[in-house]
């Protein structure tokens, strides 16, 4: 049942969907909550139910079907797998600052000095809400919004408020809230614009 | 010219002296490790520092406090002439250079009424100055050099001289700005000891030296203490100082190496 789908299992913090992380190819179908295949999830809803042989997959795996990507949030026994549609590619970095004892230079967020935590992870970035003025207060600015980011759990990497997120469109955000459960990361991020 | 950033850097140095009076190899006045820097701490880094007992001291300008206090006339100030660090000595037909030349100094030689001038470049020493001078002189005369010595066998009148230019300054503006020195401490006892050390040390200073050679007036303005973040292990104290500093422009004032003139109606003189 379903279409041919490649399964990727992240092996580290960088590029989880690189070719060497491809695990298996299987057939999979994705549907909304009632699995009726009548209509797909709409705006603001990244949750899909995955119908495939979960013996070959586990939470945190990515599924690539044509050009569409999901990740497995959980796969409870005797139920369809809970999947998240990941239509953005994001990277995370942590600003680093002086660790010198005594007189140091300048402390602040310097992107060129930031430590890359995760690179090129497909994720769900939805629900842009809560427009607030930018720090720069530019006359023509459109304000900043907050979004929710869903991401698989990342063993060995613990995201924190203040970490920076960059997506493949070049948009930069700062993490303002983190939640790590068995489903993976649910992050609140706020756009970072001048 | 002094900039706001220069004032901040100078304050970092003063705070460092107050917190580490015996150098950073010795314990600080509060015994905890202290980081002293311009800018704001990053939340995650500060959190980790507070958990491990490290104190952060930040220096920042207070926004909205910049005032124009210009009140002095625009007058060029000429510093006393500086003796060049390179010397030239003439003995017979030989010029000998000595000393440590500094960038921009002018070394000159007159051979039989012809002048040759070499401007010292970065990395030059007396030997290199002599070698370059010999190259210039060889345009008209035979010149031999060895080490820092240049010999012109056909010279009947030989003069060697070195001069150093100076930099004139003019104050074009004066401003007063508040700067906030913030102690981010892991406990109140540490805050008490480091804040009083900084406060007492800076209270004894009326003027601070800036990199452009000017001095800035330092006056204590006010302060604040807050325990609002004590549940996060943060005890904070702000010390705010008003600093008045000048903005200056500079111009290079070249020194005269040789003068030219006419002895009579037909005889030019260079010397």
How many domains in all of chain A? 2
- Ends apart, CA distance between termini of chain A: 49 Å
Helicity of chain B, as a percent range: 10-25%
How much is the average pLDDT of chain B? 93
The computed structural class of chain A is mainly beta
The gross shape of chain B turns out to be: elongated
Backbone structural class of chain B: alpha+beta
Euclidean distance between termini CA atoms of chain B:
37 Å
Adjacency order of strands in the biggest sheet of chain A: 1-2-3-6-5-4
The number of distinct helices of chain B, counting runs of at least 4 residues, comes to 4
Number of strands of chain A: 13
User: What's the Cα radius of gyration of chain B?
Assistant: 28 Å
Radius of gyration of chain A: 19 Å
Q: Major sheet of chain B, described briefly?
A: 8 strands, mixed
Order of helices and strands of chain A: EEEEEEEEEEEEE
Main sheet of chain A?
Answer: 6 strands, antiparallel, barrel
Low-confidence stretches of chain B: none
Extract low-pLDDT stretches of chain A: none
Describe the structure.
The complex is a heterodimer of chains A (194) and B (271). Chain A folds into 2 domains: 3-86, no CATH class; 89-191, Thrombin, subunit H. Chain A starts with a strand and ends with a strand. The mean pLDDT of chain A is 91. Chain A is an all-beta fold. Chain A has no helices and 13 strands. In chain B, helix 1 (4-19) packs across helix 4 (188-203). Chain B is elongated. In chain B, 34% of the residues are buried. Classes of the chains: A mainly beta (194), B alpha+beta (271). Chains A and B meet through strand 8 of A and helix 1, strand 1 and helix 2 of B.
């Amino acid at each position: 049942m379903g279409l041919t789908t490649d399964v990727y299992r992240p092996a580290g913090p960088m590029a989880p969907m690189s070719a060497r992380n491809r695990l298996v190819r299987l057939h999979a179908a994705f549907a909304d909550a009632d699995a009726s295949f009548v209509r797909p999830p709409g705006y603001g809803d990244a949750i899909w139910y995955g119908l495939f042989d979960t013996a070959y997959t586990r939470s945190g795996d990515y599924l690539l079907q044509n050009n569409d990507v999901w990740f497995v949030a959980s796969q409870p026994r005797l139920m369809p797998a809970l999947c998240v549609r990941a239509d953005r590619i994001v990277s995370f970095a942590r600003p680093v600052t002086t660790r010198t004892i005594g007189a140091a230079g300048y402390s602040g967020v310097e992107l060129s000095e930031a430590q890359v935590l995760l690179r090129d992870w497909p994720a769900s970035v939805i629900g842009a809400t809560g427009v607030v003025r930018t720090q720069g207060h530019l006359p023509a600015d459109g304000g900043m919004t907050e979004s929710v980011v869903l991401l698989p759990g990342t063993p060995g990497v613990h995201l924190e408020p203040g970490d920076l997120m960059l997506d493949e469109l070049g948009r930069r955000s700062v993490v303002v809230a983190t939640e790590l459960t068995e489903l993976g990361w649910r992050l609140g991020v706020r756009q970072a614009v001048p | 010219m002094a900039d706001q950033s220069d004032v901040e850097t100078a304050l970092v140095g003063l705070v460092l002296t107050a917190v580490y009076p015996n150098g950073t190899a010795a314990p600080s006045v509060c015994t905890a490790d202290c980081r002293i820097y311009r800018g704001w701490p990053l939340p995650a880094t500060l959190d980790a520092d507070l958990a491990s007992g490290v104190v952060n001291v930040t220096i920042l300008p207070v926004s909205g406090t910049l005032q124009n206090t210009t009140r002095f006339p625009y007058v060029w100030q000429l510093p006393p002439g500086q003796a060049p660090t390179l010397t030239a000595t003439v003995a017979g037909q030989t010029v000998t250079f000595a000393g440590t030349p500094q960038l921009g100094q002018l070394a000159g030689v007159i051979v039989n009424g012809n002048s040759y001038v070499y401007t010292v470049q970065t990395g030059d020493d007396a030997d290199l100055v002599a070698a370059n001078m010999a190259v210039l002189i060889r345009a008209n005369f035979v010149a031999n050099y060895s080490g820092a010595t240049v010999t012109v066998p056909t010279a009947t009148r030989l003069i060697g001289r070195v001069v150093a230019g100076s930099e004139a300054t003019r104050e074009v503006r004066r401003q007063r700005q508040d700067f906030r020195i913030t102690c981010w401490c892991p406990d109140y006892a540490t805050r008490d000891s480091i804040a009083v050390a900084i406060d007492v040390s800076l209270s004894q200073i009326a003027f601070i030296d800036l990199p452009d050679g000017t001095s800035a007036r330092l006056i204590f303005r006010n302060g604040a203490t807050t325990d609002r973040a004590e549940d996060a292990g943060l005890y904070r104290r702000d010390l705010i100082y008003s600093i008045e500093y000048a903005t200056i422009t500079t111009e290079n004032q070249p020194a005269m190496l040789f003068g030219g003139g006419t002895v009579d109606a037909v005889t030019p003189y260079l010397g």
